[in-house]
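User: I'm preparing a small set of examples for a lab meeting where we compare how different chains pack in three dimensions. I only have the primary sequence for this one, and I'd like the structure in token form so I can line it up with the others. Please keep the answer compact; I'll paste it straight into my notes.
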Amino acid sequence: MPVALTQPRAEDERIDRLGSVPFLLVHLAPLAALWTGFTAFDVLLGIALFCIRMFFITAGYHRYFAHRSYRMSRAAQFLFALGGTLAVQKGPLWWAGHHRHHHRHSDQPQDVHSPSKDFWWSHVGWILCKKHEAVPVELIQDFSRYPELRWLDRYYFVPPAVLAVLCLLAGGWPALFIGFFLSTVVLYHCTFSINSVAHLVGRRPYETGDNSRNSMVLALVTLGEGWHNNHHYYPHSTRQGHFWWQIDITFYALKVLSWFGVVSSLRPLVLPPARKAPRVGSP
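Assistant: Understood. Below is the structure token output for the 283-residue chain.
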């Protein structure tokens, strides 16, 4: 499907230039490492923070808060929400609420981030406008009843700020610029690619009524989220890789955590037989 041309935006869908300054600064911060230099420690720290935070986005914000594909205690629920805030992608209620809206209206005019509007909008533009700043409380009432989650959603910037300070204390400015900021930027665009690239490039083994697609490359960099057509076909399954060759690291990690009782009741993959079965292969 070709990328649509950019369409005129309503006032509340235009980029909030002042409000987007912090987002821009996060992208510029890693450039400071050109002056400070960096070491293998800083790179390894960045890789570790990328993987840990990506897990909390995929396992926590997405598969738990947005889709309730497994269960956990209230304490574990808070820790997964806290881990998700470290990715600097706002709070769990905001993230999961908008994702539920996306599934209700995927690639339709009401979709908050469909590339049918344009690629830039689906990738990041929708986040930088004022229209979608508020939490869609009506779509996330099951979790908005928890005061600790409401606090995290309101003060989502506090945990990543603390993490940034810890990186600075652990390794100085290079650890901050590379370990924290660069890994955050990479984390952003790997996550955002599921909204944009995964609706434009890849295979569509299932008829889902939208343009969701599967990509092995995206699955690897997002710990399993790249099996996006699979996910839109059966969104409530904990597992998004439907076959052994469809690598889904998030699911593997959740399976291990279930052995220790951290999570439970992982929703099994039960596919209705009437639709087209997927072909082995990757884009």
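A couple of notes for your slides: Residues 237 and 267 are 5 Å apart (CA to CA). The chain has one domain: 11-209.

User: Perfect, thanks.
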